[in-house]
Amino acid sequence: MSFTDLHSHILPGLDDGAANEAEFLSMARVALEGGTTVMVATPHWDLEEKPAPWEHVPPIVEQYRKKLEFVGLGLELLPGAEIRLNAGLYRLTGEETAVRRLTLAGNGRYILVDLPLMDLPVGMEETIFRIQLCGCTPILAHPERNRRLADDPALLRELADRGVELQVNSGSLTGAYGRVARRLSAALLREGLARLVASDAHRPEERHPDLSGAWKRAGELLGVKAADLLLKENPRAVLAGEDLSALPTGDVSRRRSRRR
Ligand SMILES: [Fe+2]
Hints:
This protein is 47% helix and 15% strand. It is of the alpha/beta class. The strands form two sheets. Strands 3-5-6-7-8-9 form a six-stranded parallel β-sheet. A three-stranded parallel β-sheet has the order 1-2-4. Helix 10 (212-222) packs across helix 11 (224-240). The two termini are 33 Å apart. The site of fe (ii) ion has 5 residues, from loops.
């Protein structure tokens, strides 16, 4: 089974991801070569600056799907958005239908949200709660890259206990964002707190969409079964609107006891 990548900036011209069509195609090639066959395009979306990603993203995805087909690249592209967790999102949580339309692939269940890199936004917990009241599950993008959460990992457990899914970046696992993100992402996996890994790809080379290195690293940390859950089965469950499976973290203790 191949990888499903829930987080990418592959659509050109919408954010700081792919700069043009050539980069879009290079990213698609790198993703496919790394074993990804399904990718959700999740441009950054700040609802305080621009409303309604669901009106803008699906037609652009459709246009780029045709380009992939034309050049014979078998990557399935789906619409989504990475929504900044701020007052704009908070305001929208008053409308259940609107919130459901923000979900990945428009399936009404999972919303990819992100935080600023340094701090936590005011009203974060209330916004998360209101998203849940709309029947949706927030997926927090790359929590290992937020400074406040890195300084106080107990907050990450609190978020997970409240039903927030945590998505670790593939580059964090492989060390592309430095030692702190590498260590924290490994800890999130070992403790079973993060149940999703995605690329958050911005370019064909740096911050790339090749998930194979992260899959290998997750396998070293937790075993192949867990790596498959993180990069294949749970991302598919997200797109199907189903609950995610817990990681078989027991594998680790068994492996450790064998080593002793
Ligand atoms: Fe992103």
